[in-house]
Structures are given as C-alpha cells and as structure tokens.
Amino acid sequence: MTTSEHVSTVPAPSAGRDGRVRAEPQVYDFRRPLTLGRDTARRLEMGFERFARMWGTQLTSRLREPCSVVHDGLSLRTYDDYVSTLPSPTALVLCQVDVTRQAAMVQFPVAVALVWVDYMFGGTGLGDDRERELTDIELVVVRDLMQRALDDLSYSFASIVPLAVTVRSVQYNPQFVQATSAAEPVVVASFTLKVGQRSDSATLMLPADLMLIEPTADVDADRDAELARTRQIARERLERLAQTVPVDVTVEFAPVVVHPRDVVGLAVGDVLPLGHPATRPLDVVVDGVVLARAAVGSHGSRLACQIVAVEEHPS
C-alpha cells in the first residue's frame, strides 16, 4: 500500500464462516476524495460566480436581449454519476483543457441553443421546440458563442488555476459520450440560464485533479503580479485611447431666462439681451462641464477665443 492510499472499512457484502455478512476493506485514494474542502469549494465557487456574470454579459451583448447566468451549486462526483443525471437528448459541448489535454464539457438543452441562434439571426427568440440536432450553420454559431464564453472562463480562473479551454465538438446523447473514464472524479458546476422570459439549467464539467490543485504561495504571488501587470497595461491603453476620442467643445455666454411667449414671438431684427457682462470671459464647455474661461478675439478671418483661466475639477 502506497502512502497515498488507505484501507477503509466501507461495508461490502461478504459472508464469513458463521454466515454473517462482514465488512470488506476497500482501497480509498486520498488524492482523489469525492468531497470538497471548505476552502477549496469557496475558491472554486468564487471563480464560477465570476464566470457566470461574464457569461451573462457575453450573451446579452451577442443576442441583444437581456440575459443572465446564475451559479447554483458545485459538486464533486464521478463522471459516470454525472452523465447518468443528464437528460437525453441534450446539447453537450465537448471541450479540451489546453494545458493538460483533458476533457471538459458544457451541457444545456438543445432548445436553448436554438433560441440563441434565433436571436442572433434577428428573430424573436421563439426558437424551435423540436429535439433535433443543430444544422451546420447553427453549429458554427453555437460553437463560436461557446468559445467566447469559455475564454471568459479562463479569465475567471486566472488567479486560481490555468484553465484555457477549447471547443472540440457538439454531441447530443450523454450515454454515448465517453469523455473520460467512468470512475474519474469531476467537478460539476450548475447554472441557471435566463434569456428573455426563458429559464433553463446548464452544467459545466471539469477534471477534478486539475481543479483541486492547491495553489502555493509562490504561484499566488506570481499570478497576483501577472494580474497587476495586466491591469496596468489595460489602464495605460485606456488612457492612450481616451486621449484620441473626439469631443465637442463649445464657447458659451451666460444663460438667460426668457418666457415661452418671448421665444414664440421672436422675429427677424429683434434684440435679445444676454445678461453676460462685457468684461466677463466666456465659458469653454465640454459635455456640459465648464473647463476653462476664454476671451473673444479673432484669428485671421475667423473668430477665435483665447484661454484666460482654467477651472479646477476634483478627479
């Protein structure tokens, strides 16, 4: 017996000499327990909750319809136990974890995929209630939609475990899909998908030995540093892009209050007093915010203004 195995007295039917059923020892591998530790479960739940929020945002932007994804729960079970709970037929998006080449799977009703396709093609989202396989065009749309969602999965777990996942194929009968061995432990996250008025359930299966790796302090520090660098690069890029966004700048007199009857009765030649002192600079306004004061002048044959004061605004 290796150090990673232990003899457990889990009862199994076995008759002794006296005819009584006795418990037979069974090998229990502590490297793959079918229970989640509290800290591990909480860490994974945080990752799946981030993924759910990002998946919902992704669906909303692509379908142009209010969508939400809610993480319902997390469990550790064998692959055979997981597959036995799935309805048939159902949409099974078979994936591969790029780092370890292990199998992963996203499951949801086929009708949900048809609703997605209907929205993306400009439909009303009624979809197709028939339990049928996706056409080639529908398959391309669903694969692209799922790959974008799984890219968010990688980002959601960036601080927990490397989890780059690639879509491989779509199947429909869970009993005929052998993604991994029947006794292999897997982590299963369940979700509620809401698209418009429709609500459905979905699951995400990932290999347990990858998800249950305890991060070391060095790994955490490296990931934190990488995230900090990524955020800094994103912030610098955003600042650079913000400097190139065109904005409308207006030079305004002080506003004057008039009655509707005065506005309706305006005619060519009428004089509208502005109540702006001749010695007061004009306001330089961007998006309703006064940024500076300027004096009126000219530049060649064009009117111009010269900045004479800059307004201070708290950041």
Round the Cα radius of gyration to an integer and report it: 32 Å
- Average pLDDT, rounded to a whole number, is 83
Let me know the number of strands.
12
Approximate shape: elongated
- In DSSP terms (H or I, runs of 4 or more residues), the helix count works out at 7
* Global structural class: alpha+beta
How many strands, what sense, and barrel or not for the largest sheet? 6 strands, antiparallel
Low-confidence stretches: 1-12
Topology pattern, helix = H, strand = E: EEHEHEEHHEEEHHEHEEE
The amount of helix comes to 25-40%
Task: Describe the model.
With 315 residues, the protein is α+β, with helices and mostly antiparallel strands. It contains seven helices and twelve strands. A six-stranded antiparallel beta sheet has the order 3-7-8-5-4-6. The protein has a four-stranded antiparallel beta sheet with strand order 9-10-11-12, with no helix packed on it. Strands 1-2 form a two-stranded antiparallel sheet. Helix 1 (38-63) crosses helix 4 (136-156). The longest helix has 26 residues, at 38-63. The protein is elongated. The termini are far apart. Residues 1-12 have low confidence and may be disordered.
